[in-house]
Fold this protein.
Amino acid sequence: MTRILVTGGTGVLGGALTARLRERADVVVLSRSAHDGPGYARGDLETGEGLADALADVDAVAHCATAADYRHPDRDVAATRNLLAAAGDRHLVYISIVGVDRIPFGYYRSKLAAEGLVETSGAPWTILRTTQFHDLVATGLRLMSRLPAPLVPTLAVQPVDVGEVADRMATLVLGEPAGRVPDMGGPRVERVPDLMRAYLGAVGSRRPTFAVPFLVPGAAAAAFRRGHHLAPAHADGTRTFADHLRTTVVARGSVAASDNRSDH
């Protein structure tokens, strides 16, 4: 049976991917802890310690770990470099973000640099870029909704379901190296104010939403305004943000109640 190592296996995408892969392969999740138990392998991406042992008998690697450290964006680059050095000629599948090559944002630049390491490593590789996950968009809306007056930027987003991304990743990591594969986006390009109204409705709030122009200065903000983070030609996802709200907010009365207590 194919043996897969998943980095970031306890994260949103990594967890969903691990669950899917375990139906079809022998899966090991990389962990810095020495006592996670069966199904885990100890290894530290930041130092490289333990990676060689964790990769023993592994056929392919799904690299989902990300530091998302906006103060030290090079952490992702160092982690990817250490993983590649230990992985040798194993197939490595890397998850990235639509627009990393067109948006001069620190975290995106680190993802692009990590892509470059993968592409020039000499190892077989596959890279998938996706738009933002529903979970990330929902988190941003929740935080904005807690402001005294929810001012929402008139920005477009194309949220995609993490489970559908995990399905695509599982197929890629169990398949042959494919290089840079087509981007994957959610089913709809939607305006953030509209998503905020949907979110507030889902949590039972009647608060008004105030849409404001996204006038943040700088080249990165301009790139977002131009839609470089979108993939309308690859609207491959089928689960909409409204579907996500129905299962993560409406179906969880405690979540809605909690948000309502926060003046929603």
